[in-house]
């Protein structure tokens, strides 16, 4: 049963598939794990997602291999083929599935980015999506002519203007010229190809800062979040969707889709045991120390991963790790981890496992379907982007076992009713900017 009353139409669940291979999500040692480079891996996951009637297939992107202690540490998304190239190939072997690529708005240019996504939208007949990300670190910038030129405070102002220019380019198509002169870009010309089938490819954004939330409310169609509890999800949704009206947007114009993992079992106990074993494989002793070193900023190789946390204070700003997300106040985080370790009697490795887990749905297929439904009916999310732990077969059992139960509950489609990603998401085709009527 859903959480809606009998005379209400239940909210529909949106689902997307994230190709694994980021950080320690993937269990590479599993014998079922295959290449993150071979096209057959991408094809397998995409075909599975389409068989499950998912909205879209999502590829992350990286622009430089991350380093730790001056050495490349792990496989990362930057070790894969370039995202739009892969998705153009997947357009030929899928029919309805949306195709979402991550492209950085800091180290690219809006005209060329708009042209590439317009091409993908045409080749896929209206299934393209762009996950807009930003970067402020000079380490990544060393791969580009401008280097680390962009101040952190400016990254969203550039991204907002970047998206605005791209939409002007899409609206121009081959029929009219456009001209833009702004703080970051001066661009004049036309697209070349006709306006994309969706008008604008779907724009996805992932950012939780106040600036990120404001950017999502003003410019995004989908926001990719990490809020893990029902209460946190409802608060985030209320905050972001509460900002839409000032941009002339309705509540349904933005879909909130947290990234989640899942583990299924025949019983709740079996699922929990499988989940614990997966986490032990994801957080090896080496990875546990590396994660701790990212917080403490010093070499901790002399510490036992199965022993207690260090009693020394962190040393911020050492540059021990390059290309990784900033963790905030390291002193506060270290004390929080120490307190957790003391209270629960956890070792270094156990503490890292406890504190770095993603939101996960763990249980029988029926329990997982019910929990997903609960989140959506409660307004904590519009759906989820699933991040399996195996490449490329990790989505198979979800499609086979959970999707039919969501369909039985009347909250997930039994067939595609449209041909474009916007139609899957229930998003309107935007009018060209030169045809829009200003609101009063």
Automatic annotation (TrEMBL):
Ligand binding (FMN): 102, 156, 209
Protein name: NtaA/DmoA family FMN-dependent monooxygenase
Similarity comment text for this entry: Belongs to the NtaA/SnaA/DszA monooxygenase family.
EC numbers for this chain: 1.14.-.-
Organism expressing this protein natively: Streptomyces xanthii
Top-level EC class: oxidoreductase
Family matches, as Pfam families: Bac_luciferase
NCBIfam families: FMN_nitrolo (TIGR03860)
Span of domain Luciferase-like: 34-380
Keywords from the UniProt entry: Flavoprotein, FMN, Monooxygenase, Oxidoreductase
Entry's Gene Ontology molecular function annotations: monooxygenase activity; oxidoreductase activity, acting on paired donors, with incorporation or reduction of molecular oxygen
InterPro entries linked: Diverse_substr_monoxygenases, Luciferase-like_dom, Luciferase-like_sf, NTA_MOA
